Structure to design on (237 residues):
């Protein structure tokens, strides 16, 4: 569900900003299993994956190895930390930079976001997927955990689906950061408005009506403001 919604939103932004058929240079920071990286490579784009976790890098290498040669040759994998993107790549190297589900593991996002913006070409797209700090009470409240819901109002930390401590971001704060680093917010979406308490299964088997409702809610006020995740798209000046 999450990956499918983000893919649709990302494709909407790419289509709006770049000519159809253009082969884009895309950096995926923390690609994980490679869902978005592989999908974009299959669409013809040139993908660089920057992964700090050796175990996840191994999983992604196996996934890439299973692809046809024409797709494999479009993907470059580098073990490294997104906070050091400037050490690996020069200014203006990429047309699109993805940073999905990574900022929540950092004590603060600004330095990394600024570094990612620097490796974007002018007019390039910066795609961030973060936990929504303005809606942290929603999940525990929907699960009937009122103590956790009340505690969520007081801070920006939480325990994620993997049982790991993590941090959430507020849209207003990231909007300020994106403007300050020359990649102002162009569009934003909510992800998992109605289904945050449901298992994060693949889109196969999800009713079309449910997916349509989530997609519409993710672009409609006031629903998107209380989504579990925020997908923010900045554009480099």
């Amino acid at each position: 569900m999450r990956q499918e919604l983000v893919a649709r939103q990302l494709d909407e932004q790419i289509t709006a900003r770049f000519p159809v058929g253009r082969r884009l240079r895309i950096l995926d920071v923390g690609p994980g299993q490679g869902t978005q990286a592989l999908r974009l490579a299959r669409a013809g784009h040139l993908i660089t994956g920057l992964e700090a976790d050796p175990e996840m890098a191994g999983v992604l290498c196996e996934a890439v190895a299973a692809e046809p040669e024409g797709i494999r040759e479009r993907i470059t994998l580098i073990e490294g930390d997104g906070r050091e993107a400037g050490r690996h790549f020069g200014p203006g190297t990429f047309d699109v930079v993805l940073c999905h589900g990574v900022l929540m593991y950092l004590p603060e996002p600004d330095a990394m976001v600024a570094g990612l913006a620097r490796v974007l070409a002018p007019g390039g797209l910066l795609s961030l997927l973060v936990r929504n700090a303005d809606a942290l009470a929603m999940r525990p409240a929907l699960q009937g955990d009122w103590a956790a819901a009340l505690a969520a109002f007081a801070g920006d930390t939480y325990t994620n689906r993997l049982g790991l401590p993590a941090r959430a971001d507020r849209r207003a704060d990231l909007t300020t950061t994106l403007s300050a680093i020359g990649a102002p917010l162009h569009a934003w979406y909510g992800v998992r408005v109605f289904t945050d308490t449901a298992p994060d299964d693949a889109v196969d088997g999800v009713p079309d009506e449910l997916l349509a409702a989530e997609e519409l809610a993710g672009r409609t006020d006031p629903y998107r403001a209380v989504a579990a995740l925020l997908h923010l798209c900045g554009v480099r000046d």
Remarks:
- The two ends are 32 Å apart (CA to CA).
- Residues 113 and 178 are 8 Å apart (CA to CA).
- The first strand starts at residue 25 and ends at 29.
